[in-house]
Amino acid sequence: MNVITCAFCTSEAATFRVRPDRVFECPQGHEITVRDICLDEMNVWAVDASGTLGYVVSPVFSLEVIAEALEDLANCDSWPHPEYAARVALDTAFKACVDYVAAYRVGVA
């Protein structure tokens, strides 16, 4: 999980922690809510076991990447360098699997 830090604090350790009222607060008292979290479509926010706010690659996006990589692997014989194409497809699928596991570990998947 990639940790989201406070943009207003100068300390690298200014991570947001969840409070009982579901608001996130940094050590200096700056607050954000779920509505304040703005991520691109491939990422989703998450909270780890310690209550720290972060983000991971969306499991839906990871599964789409895996499906595309497996399709590329099935068609790699049509590429000029099939061994290279197969390696790229497998590397892409592996990275997407790692991203999926990271999301699963924080309870997103």
Number of structural domains: 2
Give the biggest beta sheet.
3 strands, antiparallel
Gyration radius over CA:
18 Å
| Beta content | 15-25%
How many beta strands in the DSSP annotation?
A: 6
Structural class: alpha+beta
Question: What is the overall pLDDT average?
Answer: 93
Lateral arrangement of strands in the main beta sheet: 1-6-5
Low-confidence stretches: none
Distance between the termini: 13 Å
Fraction in helix: 25-40%
Listing every helix as H and every strand as E from the N terminus to the C terminus, the arrangement reads EEEEEEHH
Shape: elongated
Counting DSSP H or I runs of 4 or more residues, the number of helices is: 2
Structure description:
The model has no long low-confidence stretch (mean pLDDT 93). The protein contains 2 helices and 6 strands. Strand 5 (43-47) and strand 6 (53-57) form a beta hairpin. The protein is an alpha+beta fold. Helix content is 37%, strand content 17%. The chain has 2 domains: 2-57, no CATH class; 59-105. Helix 1 (59-74) packs antiparallel against helix 2 (82-105). The strands form 2 sheets. A 3-stranded antiparallel β-sheet has the order 1-6-5. It has a 3-stranded antiparallel β-sheet with strand order 2-3-4, with no helix packed on it. The two termini are 13 Å apart.
Layout: helices, strands, pairs:
Blueprint (H helix, E strand, L loop, with lengths): L1 E2 L13 E2 L5 E2 L5 E2 L10 E5 L5 E5 L1 H16 L7 H24 L4
Antiparallel strand pairs: 1-6, 2-3, 3-4, 5-6
